[in-house]
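#struct-help
A.M.: can someone run this one for me? Single chain, 114 residues.
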Amino acid sequence: MSETKVREASPYRILKVKLGQGNDKEMIEAVRSETDKPICVDINQGWTDRVLALEMAHWLKDKGVVFIEQPMSKTSTDDTAWLTQNSPLPIIADEAFQTIRDLRRFRESIAELM
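D.P.: on it. Structure tokens below:
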């Protein structure tokens, strides 16, 4: 995200940043160099390793991120459930929920973790 985009977003109280392209930390650092506003991030299914995703969740929390949207593939139900259970930040589903069947599948994955 360029400094110009951050400045253009100045009227907004919360910023949404698209991540998941391999330069996540650089993107957040660029935003943080311009503003301390709260950030929500949309990973667009870009993370594939749940342990690294959890490490990023902790790092993002320290950077003022308020939630993470769709970090893992929509088909990685177990990994997403595990990350949701362990993350210091809320995990928001997007592409993963298309039908009521998807909701049931996630509920079952989370129940298995408990």
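A.M.: thanks! The chain has five helices and four strands.
D.P.: also worth noting: Residues 76 and 83 are 11 Å apart (CA to CA).
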